[in-house]
Specification:
two-stranded antiparallel sheet; mainly beta; eight-stranded antiparallel β-barrel; 10 strands
């Protein structure tokens, strides 16, 4: 029995020491406008996300991204709509270790001359971390994005589909 308990303790501690402390991912996304935001075409963007892993299932995240939406003919916007988002959030991974749910909140900075302003921004959605190496992964996710700022009395919300390359780092050896 004593040998069994020592073996369990060794497995637990060796596994804990091999876990990364941080993750970082960067990649492109496709932005699909929803609701009042249908006056623009499907957009594109990208971003960087850093996660501080708290345990096997939770992580605090910080992200910065850019988003561009080309306008359609007949829309009163003077140019394509673009903004930068900065957010912090939380990611919770299920017991399978790869499927997660994430929520974050922050600020969207609009970049057009006609509307240099900011608005409250938040998102929520699922994702999947696909392991592609010892310390690397691909983050496949979808987020429903909401912004408080209105332009031309229209709410700017969209669904982002993201595929990002990521690295694990900071684990004890």
């Amino acid at each position: 029995m004593k040998l069994f308990l020592q073996l369990i303790a060794l497995l637990i501690t060796s596994n804990a020491f091999s876990q990364p402390k941080w993750q970082a991912s960067i990649g492109p996304q496709i932005n699909i406008p929803i609701g009042d935001f249908r006056g623009v075409k499907t957009g594109y963007g990208g971003g960087l996300e850093v996660a501080k892993l708290l345990n096997n299932t939770g992580a605090v995240t910080a992200a910065v991204g850019f988003n561009t939406f080309p306008t359609k003919n007949g829309v009163s916007l003077q140019s394509d709509l673009g903004f930068i988002t900065t957010r912090i959030g939380y990611r919770s991974t299920c017991t399978l270790g790869r499927i997660y749910g994430a929520a974050d909140l922050g600020i969207a900075f609009f970049t057009q001359d006609f509307t240099k302003t900011t608005g409250f921004s938040y998102s929520i959605g699922p994702g999947y971390l696909l392991k592609v190496g010892n310390n690397s992964f691909v983050d496949l996710g979808a987020r429903f994005n909401f912004n408080s700022r209105k332009i031309d009395k229209k709410q700017f919300n969209w669904v982002a589909i993201r595929a990002a390359f990521g690295l694990n780092f900071g684990g004890k050896k």
